[in-house]
Amino acid sequence: MRWQGRRTSRNIQDRRGMSARRTGGIGGLGLIVVVLLGLFFGVDITPFLSGGVVSEAPQPTGPNEITDSQEEFVAVVLAETESVWDRIFSESGLNYSQPTLVLFEGGTTSGCGMAQSAMGPFYCPGDKNIYLDMDFFRVMEQELGSRGDFAKAYVIAHEVGHHVQDELGVLGQVNEQRSRMNEADANALSVRIELQADCYAGLWAREVTEEFALTDDDIRSALDTAARIGDDALQRAAGRRVVPDSFTHGSSEQRQGWFYTGYRSRDPNSCDTFSAGTL
Q: Per the confidence metrics, is the pTM higher than 0.90?
């Protein structure tokens, strides 16, 4: 993946060094277990992290300045998601409202409550921001065995996929339906929303193949990461029995399959996981 020297997004808010902190919460081995269970893409693990005092994060003022290569990488990937989704929405006669990506360290406030690094990257429909503690990329490499820059780009593209769902009204509809369902049915609907975001990430990957000079190995690194963060893989990593009814993001096979569906088709309509019957 060649990303250096490309256009960077202006929709970055850097709160690193000024993040809110929570004291008195879970820590040590307990936190490691929670991270394994809720490691990826905004799993709701906040009930496990409650307690303590949240201090408000001071807000940056003025335009953001790129200060390091990690931030530059995130800003370049975000810019390419903007280009792709701007065009796709425009072709359908729609306007795409670009999300802001918030970088933080440890913890910060969000429109969806407290954001902490242990929650993994997530999209908040309350303020239409994506939240990312870039230490998560280290966790991906050292704890999950993920490799390569494009695996990290996949993470960002997946969260942007949730923003796309929000822009189309899908996210709000699904969340409203889930609130009226039993746990197993609500989990099944959550799986479909996550797999659709994976499909959107795959579609985006195909669209930026030339821009980033992507290779087959880059795509394999994204597929490998998708496999490592399937619900079944995470449950096994935590020493738990695999319970499909508890899945909220999909199995390794499903996550790989839907990413590749988007990559192969380049058609947003192919990502309709809600009409797909058995996944």
A: no
